[in-house]
């Protein structure tokens, strides 16, 4: 079988870091090829070069035997390469068909385009109405818009960057069925992920990257997940040591919490109730955009609620603001690092003051003790291994993972009794993620009550005592995490948003 | 191919270097303009920037410098606090007028008493007048979500009409033979805002401006309120996470800028202007917006920017009368200064890169 795309010796260096170092691999027509690696291993840079977004420093690419050097994505698309990005580029206020037309070179008349969208969506089992407004769609449906946008170009190579991070397990099955069908028709798929089970079930070739270099090639179906992980990480990972303790007294109680949506594209919280005990970790899963941000702001105090909906040790705290709750040792770390958990253009010292002022006694009569604030910032940097030249650096100058360590460390070091975190290890490399999880577990071990909101189910299964899922602003009843099957979790997350029948014809 | 690349952190060097560079660029571009108008550019630049400070008549101009810079700095300091937090009080001119009317009115109510309490009462009334006028857009914004830019700006025109009304009505000088305008406060010792050092131009308003600079500096660098103001401007969502109450912050910042503008109006009417008259206001409230941005919303920067702008006004007037330049040319020159400053600002956050485009 001749290669569809052949990559030889591709190298791309940025100042201070070699993102790709002499990378070579081949993809055959119809092959589902996995690109496996940790965050920062160079997967994204590699596919950006194939898609014409980044120019390599050296090395060659050959597509169907012809030299392939796309100067821009338009040229790559013209040669039959399409890409579905991890972050969607869709306009909320426009319809599906309008969004797709915007991405086309010569869009056909709207009626004809709508017909083609319907045809493609039926053919590949991706039900989608062309007239729907994108703002009303779930993350999974939005991804379908992006996929159909690609399929309309009849691609020969489809690149998918972490496509399942926003999907429920059932939606993942629908996507996989579509990808298998495409593969059977001869479309090659380059599939980027760090989720090992997915790759084992879907892909028939894998190239493993570590620190920009190819460190292994294999047939993932022949390898165990542990073997793949070892190739990817290169060393034994220390999983967090969970010593399940007897849960203590109820700490944080939430009763019938409802909150209107903060904006047109936000999610309303509906009748949420749960209790977290001292020493317990409650994991909250769910697809992004189902009320995670809103739940965090109701618990942090950014959004006040009425009456006794939120109680600490039995005392209502629903109407208290963030600092008043911090004084009671209820702390939070939001998902969005830049612009919510931290101010991008402010220094790490100033960002340490942002949440630390109350509990660390960093002010006297309203005047800031900058020396003490600097010490607190330095303490976070040392204890959580934040890589930065110094605490005077702006938050935006830090990499995502390092800033995440800072944001989590800032709260953990303030000895919370209740800590609410959203996506604690998002974009953090594996060893740092393990350290963050361990620090959360240590907190619980010392009697704190933790609410961990995350989209990483593996993470939640690893550290949670009990598990619940958010779906359209509703929280399922928490259940003990031990012994939950992936199907049960999927159902708690709301199934496939009414799409279960999608593949009856092809399954 | 030239392109801009964002710096990881704003450059400290360029933050301070760009204002100087902007002044130099203004001199060059302005020089070209003046040369095209048929005057000697070197002479014009010297008349504007050098003569008022070190020329033959500098003893007169130097005093004028503080008289003009004082109200600009006082108003700009108040505005800068709000601007930093993303609260846009554009109506300082109206608050300045209302401060002058209330302050002068409070004083004139006691005419012809010579009590030493009259001037302090006028100061308090002036500040309250400006504060009250700024509370209108502030409360409308916090209660009904109106746009403070539009409301505060429109209230300037309301204030101008009130000014016209009181200067020919309520506050008109009974001994003024029917001419519009109040009694001259400078001729009334108890109410006069006199020069503290004769010939220096240093009146109580200038003292207030310097005190405002110092207090603003301390607030912004050492106090929680300053931190909350900066945080709100940087990132409103992070500010809410840090427990900043947006409503309180709007009321504080609008009130502060209104009170300082009112003070500036009072000191002007009791000092350099002397009386309430129909055309008493001379645009300090609007020019102060330029001063605030020219000074990068930094108290020390505003102090320097106020002095610089006052210098171009005084020097500009001298250039008009001595060299016969049209006033439009001087205004254009002042406009260039602002343009270059904002344009050069780019270099604090970006660096120039020469070479091929790379996308990352």
TrEMBL record, chain B:
Entry's Gene Ontology molecular function annotations: transmembrane transporter activity
InterPro entries, A to Z: ABC_transp_permease
Keyword Phosphoprotein: no
Main localization, broad class: membrane
Subcellular localization: Cell membrane
Annotated GO CC locations: plasma membrane
Ranges annotated as spanning the membrane: 12-39, 59-83, 117-140, 149-171, 202-220, 241-267, 273-293, 300-316, 328-348
Organism: Actibacterium mucosum KCTC 23349
Keyword Membrane: yes
Protein origin, superkingdom: Bacteria
Signal peptide (UniProt feature, chain positions): none
UniProt xrefs under Pfam families: BPD_transp_2 (PF02653)
Record's keyword terms, sorted: Cell membrane, Membrane, Transmembrane, Transmembrane helix
Protein name, entry field: Sugar ABC transporter permease
């Amino acid at each position: 079988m001749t290669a569809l795309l052949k990559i030889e010796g591709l190298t791309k260096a940025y100042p201070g870091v070699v993102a790709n170092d002499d990378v070579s691999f081949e993809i055959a027509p119809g092959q589902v090829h996995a690109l496996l690696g940790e965050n920062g291993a160079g997967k994204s840079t590699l596919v950006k070069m194939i898609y014409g977004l980044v120019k390599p420093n050296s090395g060659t690419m050959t597509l169907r035997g012809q030299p392939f050097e796309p100067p821009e994505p338009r040229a790559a698309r013209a040669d039959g390469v399409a890409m579905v990005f991890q972050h969607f580029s869709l306009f909320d206020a426009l319809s599906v068909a309008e969004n797709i037309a915007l991405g086309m070179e010569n869009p056909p008349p709207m009626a004809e385009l709508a017909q083609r969208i319907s045809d493609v969506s039926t053919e590949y089992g991706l039900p989608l109405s062309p007239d729907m407004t994108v703002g009303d769609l779930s993350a999974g449906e939005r991804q379908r818009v992006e996929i159909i946008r690609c399929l309309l170009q009849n691609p020969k190579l489809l690149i998918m960057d972490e496509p399942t991070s926003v999907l429920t397990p059932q939606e993942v099955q629908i996507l996989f069925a579509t990808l298998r069908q495409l593969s059977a028709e001869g479309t090659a798929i380059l599939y980027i992920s760090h989720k090992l089970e997915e790759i084992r079930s879907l892909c028939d070739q894998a190239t493993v990257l570590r620190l920009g270099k190819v460190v292994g090639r294999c047939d993932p179906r022949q390898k165990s997940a542990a073997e793949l992980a070892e190739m990817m990480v290169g060393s034994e990972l220390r999983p967090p040591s969970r010593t399940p303790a007897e849960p203590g007294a109820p700490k944080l109680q939430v009763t019938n919490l409802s909150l209107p949506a903060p904006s047109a594209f936000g999610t309303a919280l509906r009748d949420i109730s749960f209790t977290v005990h001292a020493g317990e970790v409650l994991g909250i899963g769910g697809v992004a955009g189902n009320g995670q941000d809103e739940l965090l702001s109701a618990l942090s105090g950014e959004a006040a609620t009425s009456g006794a909906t939120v109680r600490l040790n039995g005392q209502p705290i629903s109407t208290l603001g963030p600092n008043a709750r911090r004084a009671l040792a209820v702390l939070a770390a939001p998902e969005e690092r830049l612009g919510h958990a931290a101010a991008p253009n402010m220094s790490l010292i100033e960002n340490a003051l942002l949440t630390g002022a109350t509990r660390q006694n960093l002010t006297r009569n309203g005047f800031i003790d900058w020396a003490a604030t600097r010490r607190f910032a330095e303490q976070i940097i040392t204890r959580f291994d934040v890589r930065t030249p110094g605490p005077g650096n702006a938050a935006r100058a830090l990499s995502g993972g390092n800033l995440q360590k800072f944001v989590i460390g800032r709260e953990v070091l303030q000895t919370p009794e209740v800590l609410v975190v959203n996506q604690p290890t998002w974009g953090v490399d594996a060893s740092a993620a393990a350290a963050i999880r361990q620090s959360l577990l240590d907190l619980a071990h010392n009697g704190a009550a933790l609410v961990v909101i995350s989209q990483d189910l593996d993470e939640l299964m690893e550290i949670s005592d009990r598990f619940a899922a958010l779906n359209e602003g509703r929280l399922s009843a928490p259940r003990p995490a031990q012994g939950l099957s992936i199907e049960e979790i999927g159902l708690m997350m709301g199934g496939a948003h009414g799409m279960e029948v999608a593949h009856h014809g092809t399954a | 191919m030239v392109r801009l690349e964002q710096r990881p952190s704003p450059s400290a060097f360029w933050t301070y270097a760009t204002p100087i560079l902007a002044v130099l660029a203004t001199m060059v571009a302005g020089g070209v303009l003046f040369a095209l108008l048929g005057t000697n550019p070197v002479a014009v630049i010297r008349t504007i920037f050098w003569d008022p400070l070190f020329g033959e008549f500098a003893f007169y101009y130097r005093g004028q410098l503080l008289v003009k810079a004082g109200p600009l700095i006082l108003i700009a300091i108040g505005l800068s606090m709000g601007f930093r937090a993303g609260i846009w009080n554009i109506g300082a001119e109206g608050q300045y007028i209302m401060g002058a009317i209330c302050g002068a009115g409070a004083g004139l109510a006691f005419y012809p008493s010579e009590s030493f309490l009259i001037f302090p009462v006028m100061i308090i009334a002036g500040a309250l007048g400006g504060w009250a006028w700024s509370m209108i857009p502030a409360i409308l914004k916090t209660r009904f979500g109106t746009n403070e830019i539009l409301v505060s700006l429109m209230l300037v025109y309301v204030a101008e009409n009130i000014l016209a009304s009181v200067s020919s009505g309520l506050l008109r000088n009974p001994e003024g033979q029917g001419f519009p305008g109040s009694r001259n406060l400078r001729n009334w010792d108890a109410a006069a805002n006199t020069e503290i050092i004769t010939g220096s131009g240093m009146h109580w308003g200038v003292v207030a401006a310097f005190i405002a600079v110092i207090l603003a500096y301390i607030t912004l660098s050492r106090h929680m309120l300053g931190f909350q103001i900066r945080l709100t401007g940087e990132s409103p969502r992070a500010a809410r996470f840090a427990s900043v109450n947006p409503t309180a912050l709007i009321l504080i910042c609008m009130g502060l800028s209104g009170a300082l503008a009112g003070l500036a109006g009072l000191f002007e009417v009791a000092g350099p202007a002397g009386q309430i008259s129909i055309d008493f206001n001379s645009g300090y409230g609007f020019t102060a917006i330029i001063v605030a941005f020219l000074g990068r919303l930094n108290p020390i920067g505003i102090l320097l920017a106020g002095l610089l702008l006052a210098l171009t006004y005084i020097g500009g007037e001298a250039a008009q009368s001595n060299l016969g330049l049209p006033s439009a040319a001087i205004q254009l020159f002042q406009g260039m200064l602002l343009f270059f400053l904002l344009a050069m600002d780019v270099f604090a956050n970006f660096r120039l890169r020469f070479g091929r485009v790379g996308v990352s």
